[in-house]
């Protein structure tokens, strides 16, 4: 009997992220320009930073430095969310974290589908920040019903994508030919459709309620709204955008520039106004425009513990209380200075952060450790004796305030409708058909597993 040869989920994810990148570059030329800038800055940073090239070559390889790390979509219904969960699972991407964006006046809640194990992340770290629209927060009942009907009428997945997902679930994987078909079929869901499902009149009513509602409801599918490569120097890319003819958002989201980077810093170029047509009746189309798609970059640092996160949140709050970044960039310098000053209260030294329990670390034996056998194990003593060393764990998730800043800069700053903050993880998980992974538990688990491994190796037990 011949055994079917399955392609790994990691390989399917790699092929998918490549296909998505190719498609998006064709659809949004400014994104191609951003990728060129990122590659230039990454090259310059590698040249200018002694040891960085060797360090990266040893840890993760150099070829994929400037590749996409994430993208984002916004879905309209529980069924769409539950289905995308099944599709992403075939690519080894699972829901991690719950993000309530109502706190920032955006009527969605979200998770990130991503690879979880260190091996899977190193093969290909691509993730998709996935939001679900909360029509229940729309006050106009008639408009809510209308939007619900439009969403119920659309099918965002092709039959082939559904069939191949079911096949992968039933058989435990896909062979090479099926995997290639699966990637192409799933890509269709993320494609741009310039012909709206709704009339110009309905589009404008949705748009007046909230731009995001118009973006989710009006089209045949949840077009990928941005992709995000990684940069080695986000400040340089931010500064370099205007010279390349692309307009950056006002400020970089997240923590300030630091010696020991924490969490995640992100910025984007502003969403482009694109030509669309609205469906005004059988065969009749009206020209109009829609603003949704942009390009983003990210730079990641250490994953913080709940204690570190609380300190981060409170400092960010303080800084934004003193200076709220304006959408037009008019106080960008002041915001940067305020943020930097406020964050002097956050230790910028790995050992201090470790001692104070602000970040998660991964521990491993040094050469001296590998040549040593101990009777009993004490982490701090082993560290002090140089038998063990550690590195901060990289934060692989997202930040709600930053995400809100990214949403806002692409929706316009002038949203008039206010939503009440109303996190509802339970409803979200019901729609998803699964629980999301708790990221703090996950990082804590990685840290303690690394300590246990050191103990086993040092004591030989
Ligand atoms: C998602 C915005 C969130 C990020 O990087 O924080 C995000 C969206 O605009 O749909 O992608
Ligand atoms: Ni993003």
Give a description of the structure.
The chain is an alpha+beta fold. The chain has three domains: 3-301 and 396-423, Uncharacterised protein PF07063, DUF1338 (2,3-Dihydroxybiphenyl 1,2-Dioxygenase, domain 1, Roll), CATH 3.10.180; 304-349, no CATH class; 360-393 and 436-461, no CATH class. Helix content is 47%, strand content 16%. It contains 19 helices and eleven strands. It has helices spanning 9-27, 29-48, 52-59, 78-90, 118-123, 141-153, 159-171, 176-190, 200-209, 211-217, 234-240, 306-322, 332-342, 350-355, 367-370, 379-384, 400-411, 425-432, 439-459, and strands at residues 68-75, 94-100, 108-114, 127-133, 226-229, 264-269, 273-281, 284-291, 295-300, 361-365, 388-392. The strands form four sheets. It has a five-stranded mixed beta sheet. A two-stranded antiparallel ribbon has the order 6-9. A two-stranded antiparallel ribbon has the order 7-8. A hairpin with a 7-residue loop joins strand 2 and strand 3. The mean pLDDT is 93.
């Amino acid at each position: 009997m011949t055994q079917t040869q399955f392609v790994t989920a990691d390989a399917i994810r790699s092929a998918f992220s490549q296909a998505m990148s190719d498609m998006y570059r064709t659809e949004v030329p400014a994104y191609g320009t951003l990728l060129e800038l990122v590659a230039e800055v990454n090259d310059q940073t590698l040249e200018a930073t002694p040891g960085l090239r060797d360090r990266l070559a040893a840890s993760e390889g150099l070829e994929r430095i400037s590749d996409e790390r994430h993208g984002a979509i916004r879905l309209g219904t529980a069924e769409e969310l539950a289905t995308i969960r099944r599709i992403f699972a075939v690519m080894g991407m699972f829901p991690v974290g719950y993000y309530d964006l109502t706190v920032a006046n955006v009527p969605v809640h979200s998770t990130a589908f991503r690879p979880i194990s260190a091996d899977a992340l190193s093969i290909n770290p691509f993730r998709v920040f996935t939001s679900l629209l909360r029509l229940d927060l729309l006050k106009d009942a008639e408009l809510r019903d209308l939007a619900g009907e439009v969403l119920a009428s659309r099918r965002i997945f092709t039959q082939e994508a559904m069939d191949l997902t079911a096949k992968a679930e039933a058989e435990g994987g896909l062979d090479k030919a099926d995997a290639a078909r699966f990637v192409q079929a799933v890509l269709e869901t993320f494609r741009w459709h310039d012909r709206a499902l709704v009339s110009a009149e309905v589009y404008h009513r949705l748009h007046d309620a909230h731009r995001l509602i118009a973006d989710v409801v009006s089209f045949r599918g949840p077009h990928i709204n941005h992709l995000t490569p990684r940069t080695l120097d986000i400040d340089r890319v931010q500064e370099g955008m205007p010279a390349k003819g692309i307009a950056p958002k006002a400020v970089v989201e997240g923590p300030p520039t630091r010696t020991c980077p924490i969490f995640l810093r992100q910025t984007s170029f502003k969403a482009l106004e694109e030509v669309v047509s609205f469906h005004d009746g059988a065969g009749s189309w009206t020209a109009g425009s829609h603003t949704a798609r942009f390009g983003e970059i990210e730079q990641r640092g250490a994953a913080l513990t709940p204690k570190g996160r609380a300190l981060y949140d409170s400092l960010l709050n303080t800084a934004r209380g003193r200076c709220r970044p304006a959408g037009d960039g008019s106080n960008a310098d002041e915001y940067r200075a305020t943020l930097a000053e406020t964050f002097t209260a956050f230790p910028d030294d790995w050992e201090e952060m470790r001692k104070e329990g602000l970040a998660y670390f991964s521990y491993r034996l040094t050469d001296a450790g590998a040549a040593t056998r101990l009777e009993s194990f004490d982490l701090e003593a082993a560290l002090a004796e140089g038998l063990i060393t550690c590195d901060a764990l990289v934060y692989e998730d997202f930040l709600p305030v930053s995400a809100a800043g990214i949403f806002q800069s692409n929706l316009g700053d002038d949203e008039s409708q206010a939503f009440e903050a109303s996190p509802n993880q339970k409803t979200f998980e019901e729609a998803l058909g699964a629980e999301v992974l708790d990221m703090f538990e996950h990082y804590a688990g990685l840290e303690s597993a690394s300590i246990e491994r050191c103990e086993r190796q040092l004591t030989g037990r």
